[in-house]
Write a structure and sequence with these properties.
The complex is a heterodimer. By secondary structure, chain A is mainly α. Helix content of chain A is 24%, strand content 2%. By secondary structure, chain B is α/β, with parallel strands linked by helices. The chains are: A mainly alpha, B alpha/beta. Strand 1 (5-6) of chain A pairs antiparallel with strand 4 (27-31) of chain B, so a sheet runs across the interface.
Chain lengths: 113, 477
Amino acid sequence: MRHIRAVNRKAQRIEQLMTANGDVYAMYQGPQGGAQGPRFPMGCSLVFSPGWEVDSSGGTAGLCQPVERDLYDCYITCFWPAQVPDHLNNYPDWTKKCGAAAKDWRNIDLVFP
Amino acid sequence: MTELQLAEMKRFSAAGKEFAFLIPSSSVIGLDDLTGALLDGFKDGPRSPSAVLESLMPRFSHDDLVEGLSELHQIGAVTAPERAVTIPPYRDTDVAPLSTLVLNVTNKCNLSCKYCYEYGEDKLSSPAATRFMDEATACESVEFLLKRGANLPRLTLTFFGGETLLNFKVVKTTVEYARRRAREAGKPIDFSLTTNATLLTEEIIQFLTENHVGVTISIDGPKELQDRFRTFSNGAGSYDQILPRIRSLLKNHRSRPVGARVTLTSQVMDVIRIFDHLTDDIGFYEVGFAPVTTSANTLYSIGNSGFDSMLDQFTKLGQRYLEKAIKGEYLGFSNMTDQLQEIHTGVTKTYACGAGLGLLGVSPAGDIALCHRFVDSPDHKLGNIRTGIDEDRRIEFNKRTHLSTKAECHTCWVRGMCSGGCYHEAQVRYGDIGHANLHYCDWIRGWIDVCLHTYAEIAENNPSFFDRFDERRGELK
């Protein structure tokens, strides 16, 4: 890390778990070749983010996050092989009308480049 | 657009630099101007990262900001709102490996300290038929420890009382037995013992030295402070009796450092004077202080102003600790060492201590208790050394003492290190082992804050000081 110093042993251990070159652009591109250990934790690689999965009864009602939440996982927080608009350059306001994903996901519209 | 927010943290400055203590992980991180500004950008609640980056673009380059934000995110300082860490839920532990077994080899004592939790008005124990542990029970306890701690690299056997040395005969045979069994099992066992020092003899000292037994002496300081509470049953003070014995112990017992353990009360609160007497005048390697365990209404109970005075004096002693640490020297103020060790490691405890998990107490009759302080308390019995642990009961105790049940702690920044405090103290004060020790919250937060600053100062000025912490082991209070 260039900006943060891991001072105590716990912070040093977390730093070791992180990859050295995890800038946000790399985060969206996913793992690049070879084994790199755990990558960007913003999304699904380090934190279990239920969505596409089903709950214990085979449905989606019991998931701890709504399935619609996956739109965000595709959109910003991690690499996911789904086609959504990019929020960095062209469509920063794509989800503006979507305050709560479970309720407002229908407001998210198609985009036409 | 997805927003990010600050993780729970405490920011502070030390040695002219900025730091953050991340509460969920107990990480200590150093910040530069850029990461400090980024954190400021999120201080009013969740915001979109791009908005924060834009607001800082005049001061920093875009690439640097992105890199800094990424680092903050990876270390856990900023997080998506829905992933803000909460309190870890309780989970059953199947069989907690046992690392330390405390044998209360007797529940009798030759002193009548006025504040004693074992005999005073706050006692939990009921009169026990068995006053002295016999050799068979002690040896079975050793077997119990070896079996239950089979997966651990080292085990500790601690002798406690009552006054431990009233039953030195059993201490001696147990150490010899445990050493032989430890050799056979290929498992190192460390020994420690707590005593009031009144019964130390040359023979005992020689035994303790030869067997590398770690010794902690309960002592309250100079004569007039020691004799205030630590008296014989006729009211006579014990200082004159113990001083020559302690001097002899310190002179001869060189195989393990000898520590002193002081009980602070509203009347005995002169921390710095006590410390100087015990280290400089008598020669103890380390001194640890603990406020007396008592219900709120005893005369010696420490009130709010007492805790303020204690914090003030601890802070001054901490300053001396820091000055020495920067020079690579050691001040034997074990309260600070213990806390720095926890900060250094970055502990995030969901249990305040190992009682009922890695540590258990055994009564003279062989009954198993949560810890040595609960021995002979009928309500806190967990089984017997011969018949084993009642696992359902242990799980019930674990559940009741888990951080997730202590709602008052859930917003506290020191919860990962305090976790609600001593169960015995809670039982005495609130009648419930699972109650948070709310009467000293301010003191604990104040003290850990002092230690956090001290930690950062040492980390900046002499980081190699912390190398010694790998070697260190805790002792009982």
